[in-house]
Amino acid sequence: MLEHLDVVTLSRLQFALTALYHFLFVPLTLGLALLLAIMESVYVMTGRKVWRDAVQFWGTLFGINFVMGVATGITMEFQFGTNWAYYSHYVGDIFGVPLAIEGLMAFFLEATFVGLFFFGWDRLSKVQHLIVTWCVALGSNFSALWILVANAWMSNPVGSRFNPQTMRMELSSFMEVLFNPVAQSKFVHTVSAGYVTGSIFVMAIGAYYILRERHVEIARRSLTVAASFGLASALSVVVLGDESGYTAGENQKMKIAAIEAMWETEPAPASFTLFGLPDLKTETTRYEITIPYVLGLIATRSLDKTVEGIKPLVARNEERIRNGLPAYMWIAEQGGKPSASIPPALEDSMKDLGYALLLKRVRQDIENASPDEIRQAARSTIPDVPVLFWSFRIMVALGFYFIALFGIAFYLSSRRKCGRPWFLRLCMFSLPLPWIAAELGWIVAEYGRQPWIIDGVMPTFIGVSSVPAANVAASLLAFVVFYTALAVVDVTLLVKYIRKGPKAPDLHEPVAGPLPEAAPAYDASR
Questions:
Q1: Are 44 and 133 in contact (CB under 8 A)?
Q2: CB-based burial of residue 187 (10 Å sphere; 0-12 exposed, 13-18 middle, 19+ buried)?
Q3: Is residue 417 exposed (0-12), middle (13-18) or buried (19+ Cβ within 10 Å)?
Q4: What's the start-to-end Cα distance of the chain, in Å?
Q5: Which of 381, 159, 356 is nearest to 252 (CA)?
Q6: How far apart are CA 320 and CA 327, in angstroms?
């Protein structure tokens, strides 16, 4: 089947698979790192060995996940040079800066202190080791920050300009790239989702131990910490998701329209479609159930601004394609690398050069494109509406489910009744759900940007390397085999150490306070 796909499709598929696989480890790393720091802070303040045992146990699981995340993340960066060579050439001056800072500042910080975390328990004082653990958590968050700064620039390419002499995008303001509003909203939303993932992971395994009456002291304490931290994180995900919706409404109007399957512009404020069946043939959404005003408030934060529909946006993109053609023809007339600066009369046209390049998918001599071909290129700016529509709604539904789950967990743990069997089974059932939500969020963010690799600047199909499709297909198959093997190793190790559990508690250590009021609830008869 792969031999019938072109280089662009194969390259996109390979990067999507590696990115989605890598993102299985990122959220758990973010969440567990901060939970470890919180639990060790309690250990330093109380001196109780049960908290040290908890930190060492969860730290082992963190270490397995961290190693897998590093192994899968490195291959993603290699793909920029192997499969996306022209993209790397075109924007390397900008895109490479935050990635370089991530490697030098965040990854080395995190990797160094991870070693001290595991081997420094008997070599460092309590406070020194606590500082190390907090540095691990900060390093994980810094790493996410710089990667998301680079990723957000692809969705909102600020702080850059096109240089016709070099035929490349160049950095004009690093501060604009760093403080890109899309980067800020992406960062806080992503790390909060990671905190939710880590919290549910801890709650699910803690519930497993309590149900089986093993390591109850560590499991009960860990579940209580995860419930409190997870509730705050789940609320943050929803609140900060609203911020992401607003920035997308400002900078990626087509993505918002596709997420809503909104074909025509509605009178302000636009309603939110709770349920519907997008029909691509008729370009309508059947059986709509809507909530008035909600979309307008999220996307524009006003009651009088409109949210544009897909069809009007396509018409506008058609005009932008026409507007970008003079700039393209001027560059072509100069032999592809003009020696002169951009003529003032073409500065407005140069802003839409990326839209003119969409015609390259239709024909090579785009200056001779017909009106039908221009319309065809404009329609290519519509992403896959049903995929975005349902991915977003499932993700949002899971977000509200997490709030409810953590709310119940917080209430029961505060009443010392977290041993209820139905609740413990609910925690275990919920274990895979944050990963599903995180992967769907990544699909919405990246798939919703198509057909752009850099929104409004470079179409995806232009950024690929000039390599045979067979080479990309072979490397794709190799990645699938390799990552499948890694997945087996990862799951095997996690299951092994979860079954093994924390180290045996010190029998001479006094129990902190009375056993929970609901200790009999650990008996399944209740």
A1: no
A2: buried
A3: middle
A4: 55
A5: 381
A6: 12
Residues in the chain, overall count: 526
The one-letter code for the residue type at 325 is: L
Structure tokens at 274: 């709770």
Q: What are phi and psi of 168, to 5 degrees?
A: -140, 160
**458 backbone dihedrals φ, ψ, rounded to 5°:** -135, 120
Token representation of residue 294: 């909600």
User: What is the distance between the alpha carbons of residues 249 and 268, in angstroms, rounded to a whole number?
Assistant: 14
DSSP H stretches of helix in 215-281:
216-251, 253-260
Give the C-alpha separation, 299 to 243, whole Å: 9
- The secondary structure element, H or E, covering residue 110 is helix 108-119
Give the list of residues 6+ apart from residue 217 with CB closer than 8 angstroms, or none.
50, 505, 511
Report the distance separating Cα 321 and Cα 379, nearest Å. 11
- Separation CA 159–CA 173 (nearest Å): 4
Q: Which two tokens stand for residue 430?
A: 């919920």
Residues 6+ apart with CB under 8 A from 10: 2, 469, 472, 473, 476
Q: Give residue-wise pLDDT tens across range 168-217.
A: 888 889 999 989 888 888 888 889 999 999 999 999 999 999 998 888 89
**Alpha-carbon span 382 to 390, nearest angstrom:** 16
- Is residue 473 within 8 Å of 1, Cβ to Cβ? no
How many C-beta neighbours within 10 Å does residue 296 have? 23
Residues with Cβ within 8 Å of residue 67, at least 6 apart in sequence: none
- Between CA 307 and CA 301 the distance in angstroms is 11
Please give the helix or strand (H or E) that residue 74 lies within, else none: helix 49-82
Residue type, 346: L
pLDDT at 524 over 80: no
pLDDT tens digits, 29-88: 999 999 999 999 999 999 899 999 999 999 999 999 888 888 888 788 788 888 888 888
Cα 45 to Cα 49: distance, rounded to the nearest angstrom? 11
Q: Tell me how far apart the alpha carbons of residues 214 and 247 are, in angstroms, rounded to a whole number.
A: 47
- Please state the pTM of the whole predicted model: 0.88
* Segment (H or E) for 287: strand 284-291
User: Percentage helix, strand, coil, to 5, in the chain?
Assistant: 70, 5, 25
